[in-house]
Amino acid sequence: MQKIAILGSGESGFGAAILASKKNYKVFLSDSQNISQPKIDCFKNLNIEYEENQHSFKKIAKASLIVKSPGIPDDAQIVKQLNKRQIPVISEIEFAFQHTKANIIGITGSNGKTTVAHMVYHLLKDELEDVDLAGNMGLSFAKTVAEKKAKHYVLEVSSFQLDGIQKFKPHIAIITSITPDHLDRYQNNFDLYTASKFRIAENQLNTDFLIYNADEEHLCNWLKKHPVKSTCIPISTEKELKFGTYLKDNKIIINLNKKLHIMPISALEVKGKHNTKNAMAASTVAHLLKIRKETIREKLETFHGVEHRLEHVLKINKVNYINDSKATNINATFYALDSVGSDLIWIVGGVDKGNVYEDLLPLVNEKVKAIICLGLDNKKIINAFKSCVEDIYETQSMQECVKIAYHIAQEDDTVLLSPACASFDLFDNYEDRGRQFKEAVHNL
């Protein structure tokens, strides 16, 4: 019986353990922190050996294969030790891929990947047989493979997950955007981060497809210097393309074999330039999978967006409250500020990932009347905006933050939670942060 060790008991590790058990591996799961009781109960039920609050190297090194959770960096001591022993260390998506023959649609990018994944799934779920959604949004690919036998998987894939692949190959890959993010994990080197994102296409063949954002100069230059084998399909809202998907007269045009008018963007339920581009990417996938253009149009008209991404919460005393907790980097927050009107009370802050807040200055200067910092260390935010925003508050709980917003908001203002930062200083994750925001707003 082959021995496998799994590092981390989060969604990825938990899912990998279930799949490994089902595939008759001898499983040992190790977590440097506490493991929740429901997961411990599951491990006992499946006879999965586990440890918590430590990594026992001797036990882990007995395995012939290691599955590493994406939250554990490659330069962690335990990973370095395993590399020295030349024991393969792979990601959960790689492990799951090795145990399915399904068609994979993989979506990565600094921003937009969650929305595009949900949008693609919305377009395909009733049109193709056995379609499932999984990946980086908290739905373990491995657990899904263990429990279901889908013929098509729509996967949101992070750079951390791609760092641990060997054979993982989506038939259709999408790169929504590549802007500076997570540089703390990539030696503050944007090229290393970019290379990680492009790993989504490294195993593709000429029968596969790579859909990419042709309006990003850095992304296009990288593709020119590092060509891929797959058929590249550009997407642009700024220029007409001889081959690709573009906007013309506010209509989405897919021009692959012949021009195909999909729909006017005014019919999209989700608004904003970024959502137009998301719809273009999703439409292109559906077209490649032979979904009728009338169906694509009807489905896009009924897609309402995803939780924690520019999600309208409530209107209280003619003040709008918007939850954009999923904006964990500068580029995502740029889209949020750009898509919302003036007279903003902006809630920002958390764990900084090397943000250059000055990139937001023009929008903040134009639209933001007050800033509420929500984090343990707000110096960078205050220094970046104190010259253009007079009212800046510091808070360390969501309840306090929302109460301040409520007291300073006036009629027709918008209170926007768009943190531009990770959430781990005060919250479990961005979902927890978003849920706490919505709960605090509903309790006003």
UniProtKB/TrEMBL annotation:
Location(s), subcellular: Cytoplasm
Biological process, per Gene Ontology: cell division; cell wall organization; peptidoglycan biosynthetic process; regulation of cell shape
Binding residue positions for ATP: 109-115
EC number: 6.3.2.9
A GO CC term assigned to this protein in UniProt: cytoplasm
Location, primary (coarse class): cytoplasm
Reactions catalysed, as given in the entry: UDP-N-acetyl-alpha-D-muramoyl-L-alanine + D-glutamate + ATP = UDP-N-acetyl-alpha-D-muramoyl-L-alanyl-D-glutamate + ADP + phosphate + H(+)
Keywords annotated in UniProt: ATP-binding, Cell cycle, Cell division, Cell shape, Cell wall biogenesis/degradation, Cytoplasm, Ligase, Nucleotide-binding, Peptidoglycan synthesis
Location of the Mur ligase central domain: 107-286
Pathway(s) it belongs to: Cell wall biogenesis; peptidoglycan biosynthesis
Mur ligase C-terminal domain ranges (all copies): 308-421
A GO molecular function held by the record: UDP-N-acetylmuramoylalanine-D-glutamate ligase activity
PANTHER family cross-referenced by the UniProt entry: UDP-N-ACETYLMURAMOYLALANINE--D-GLUTAMATE LIGASE
Family statement: Belongs to the MurCDEF family.
Stated role: Cell wall formation. Catalyzes the addition of glutamate to the nucleotide precursor UDP-N-acetylmuramoyl-L-alanine (UMA).
Protein name: UDP-N-acetylmuramoylalanine--D-glutamate ligase
